[in-house]
From TrEMBL:
Region (Disordered): 1-23
Keyword NADP carried by entry: yes
Pfam families xref list: adh_short
InterPro entries cross-referenced by the UniProt entry: CBR1-like, NAD(P)-bd_dom_sf, SDR_fam
Organism: Lactuca saligna
Protein name: Short-chain dehydrogenase/reductase
Keywords linked to the UniProt accession: NADP, Oxidoreductase
Family statement drawn from the similarity comment of this UniProt entry: Belongs to the short-chain dehydrogenases/reductases (SDR) family.
Length: 320
């Protein structure tokens, strides 16, 4: 067998594995949660960011379908109100509130509102995100905005949510919708500097400062034009780094939050939805938004929160 045949076989095997996993997820999605699994009720409050469309909308819909009260948020009020109405018409408990995760005032006024209305939240799904590249484009023109939205915005949402997380026996949950593009050891898409990669990989050494420093270094190189030879991920560079930062921050917070006592537990995890047919991918991709939402919903609802500080795709743990 020559090298081309070997590559083709490998690709076909990967495709078969992917299809099997998709079938398994479709089957799992039809299995209802048992009474024992259902720790939540209609008084359980789940907040979803960037939920006016795509994966976020589906996460909101599925959580509401399972019987929680969902606060559907979006930065555009008209778009958010419209989709909320469609879910309410299906009989789901969904409420809208404006939220732009890039805007501190919007974050503060959102949390003040949610605290007054519900006395806190049980689940936060950080789904809002942007990418300015599709296909093989790799412009860094909007790198600062991409990192600010996907990483800094998500981080700000998490920090401000902690005092509002309701104490419960089951624990509150934070789920970050991230991407496999942010993996540290992706075969074709990773940071070239082995020393930096090793530091980012060691959960005991990993810190917010190290993650912020890495993002700042990249953004400085974007400004002076040297990023291209800086050994950064080659595919969707700014987006990949923003998600690498989200993954790293999930691990840092997983470590910090694991020290909280019973009754005040907060669990945090992150996931990749797969390559999903949404506006972000120009509706390319292999996965529907319904399936893409599945792992985030599963993480938000799973009783066994040994998922804390870990990374998932298709309901399975994957490497950072
Ligand atoms: N699609 C994929 O293949 C894929 C793969 C891996 C990871 N993801 C991740 O999945 C998440 C959802 O993406 P999607 O595919 O559903 O993309 P999408 O259809 O483009 O949806 C992105 C959502 O984020 C919102 N958003 C952007 N900036 C925001 C801000 N500053 N404040 C609040 N909301 C903001 C958008 O609002 P507007 O409508 O106002 O723009 C939109 O609702 C993202 O985090 C993305 O990185 C997607």
């Amino acid at each position: 067998m020559d090298a081309t045949e070997k590559r083709t076989n490998k690709k076909e095997r990967a495709k078969e594995r992917r299809e099997k996993r998709h079938q398994e997820i479709s089957r799992l999605r039809t299995v209802p949660y048992s009474d024992h699994d259902r720790w939540w009720s209609a008084d359980t409050i789940a907040v979803v960011t960037g939920a006016n469309r795509g994966i976020g909308f589906e996460i909101a819909r599925q959580l509401a379908f399972h019987g929680l009260t969902v606060v559907l948020t979006s930065r555009d009020t008209t778009a958010g109100e419209e989709v909320t109405k469609t879910l309410q018409e299906e009989g789901l408990k969904v409420v809208f509130h404006q939220l732009d995760i890039l805007n501190h005032e919007s974050i503060d006024s959102f949390y003040a509102w949610v605290n007054k209305k519900y006395g806190g939240i049980d689940i936060l799904v950080n789904n809002a995100g942007i990418s300015h590249n599709t296909g093989f484009d790799n412009s860094v023109e909007f790198a600062e905005k991409v990192i600010n939205t996907n990483y800094v915005g998500t981080k700000n949402m998490i920090k401000a949510s902690l005092p509002l997380m309701k104490p419960s026996a089951e624990g509150a949950r934070i789920v970050n919708v991230s991407s496999r593009l942010g993996r540290l050891n992706g075969r074709r898409n990773r940071i070239g500097d082995v020393g930096l990669r090793e530091k980012l990989e060691d959960v005991e050494l990993l810190s917010e400062d190290l993650i912020d420093g890495t993002m700042n270094k990249f953004l400085e190189e974007v400004k002076d034009g040297s990023w291209i030879s800086g050994g950064w991920p080659q595919n969707n560079t700014d987006y990949s780094l923003s998600k690498l930062a989200v993954n790293g921050y999930t691990r840092v917070m997983g470590r910090i939050l694991s020290e909280r006592g019973d009754g005040g537990k907060i669990y945090i995890s992150c996931c990749c939805p797969g390559w999903v047919k949404t506006a972000m991918t120009g509706w390319a991709g292999q996965t529907s938004p319904e399936e893409g939402a599945d792992t985030a919903v599963w993480l938000a609802l799973i009783r066994d929160q040994s998922v804390n500080g870990k990374f998932f795709a298709e309901r399975r743990e994957i490497n950072f």
